[in-house]
Write a structure and sequence with these properties.
317 residues; alpha+beta; Beta Polymerase, domain 2; 2 domains; 7-stranded mixed sheet; 8 helices; 15% strand; magnesium ion binding; cobalt ion binding; cell inner membrane; CorA_TM1_TM2
């Protein structure tokens, strides 16, 4: 849904898109957020006829990567953050595109962003008064929400590594694969987002105040730390996957060894019983009443002797 926020003096309020398009006088600061799937986005962009064509095209593009590009009198900033709903499909991080210029910001998103509601409350509370405040607020909210998600990936690996005996190798390998895929997806956007925030914080624009630059640099530093942690998670996941593969191979070898020991124990017994079970004349003690229990006793003694030999030679260890 498209929304328009105006800051006029010490007060901020929200108006409809129709009222905004009908205004003839610009407010000291306005923020227009448009839904990319609606025609509102093009209607808002058409109001800014001085926007470069390249900025307009990038603002409405569906596939984006975090970046910061200075164009004419403004800046195009693409950021990525967590989605507002768990049903989001496609990329794990939702994008928001912002065109910032003096006294105005136009943002477009195709999926709801989790940071949208906190930033909206800051805007209506009068804490956001210029484009620099708005972009810095988005950067801070996105990094604050992503930080625990990235830390949770590392904690998940710690739990898997410390509880390998409680969970089966198959389940642990599946969880490790999920963590590694998530870390790779996050890092694909967080690493360039750090560069975009650093470039914006160093940009020579009149609507960026010193405190805005400080907040942007702080968000960039957090992105750098998260990118390093995600790289570590990716490498640890690969090592954990190899360890789990080795553990599974070791378990399979141990099971094969047990089967081999059982087969070796019963091999001479099978030979003996097969020899005595031949339907031919001349089998000794065939008509003696104690012959059956005698053969059973011999088989038990042979099994015990072979088993004792395996135990003495520590085959099962």
């Amino acid at each position: 849904m498209s929304r328009v926020f105006l800051f006029d003096g010490g007060k901020a309020h929200e108006i409809s898109l129709e009222d905004f398009c009908a205004r003839t006088q610009d407010a000291p600061f306005s923020w227009v957020h448009a839904d990319g799937w609606r025609e509102d986005a093009r209607a808002v962009a058409a109001r800014c006829d001085h926007m470069p064509e390249a900025a307009l095209s990038a603002l409405l593009a569906q596939e984006t990567r975090p970046r910061c590009t200075l164009m004419a009198h403004g800046a195009l900033v693409n950021l990525r953050g967590l989605g507002a709903t768990e049903e989001d499909v496609g990329d794990p991080l939702v994008s928001i595109r912002l065109w910032a210029e003096q006294a105005r910001v136009i943002s477009v998103s195709y999926r709801p962003l989790a940071a949208m509601e906190p930033v909206r409350r800051q805007m209506l509370g009068g804490l956001i008064r210029d484009p620099g405040d708005l972009i810095a607020a988005f950067a801070q909210q996105i990094t604050e929400a992503l930080d625990p998600e990235v830390a949770e990936l590392g904690d998940g690996l710690d739990e898997i590594e410390s509880a390998l005996t409680e969970h089966g190798p198959a389940e642990a390998r599946r969880r490790v694969s999920e963590i590694r895929a998530t870390a790779i997806s996050y890092r694909r956007f967080i690493a360039p987002q750090r560069q975009a925030l650093e470039r914006l914080s160093a940009a020579d624009t009149p609507w960026l105040e010193p405190d805005d630059r400080l907040h942007l640099q702080e968000a960039a530093d957090r992105c750098a730390r998260m990118a390093e942690e995600l790289e570590a998670v990716r490498e640890r996941s690969a090592l954990a996957h190899e360890e789990l593969t080795d553990l599974r191979a070791e378990q399979m070898n141990r099971q094969a060894l047990i089967i081999s020991v059982v087969a070796l124990v019963f091999l001479p017994l099978t030979f003996l019983t097969g020899l005595l079970g031949m339907n031919v004349d001349g089998i000794p003690y065939a008509h003696q009443p104690w012959a059956f229990w005698g053969v059973v006793g011999v088989c038990v003694a042979m099994a015990a002797g072979i088993g004792g030999w395996f135990a003495a030679t520590q085959w099962l260890k």
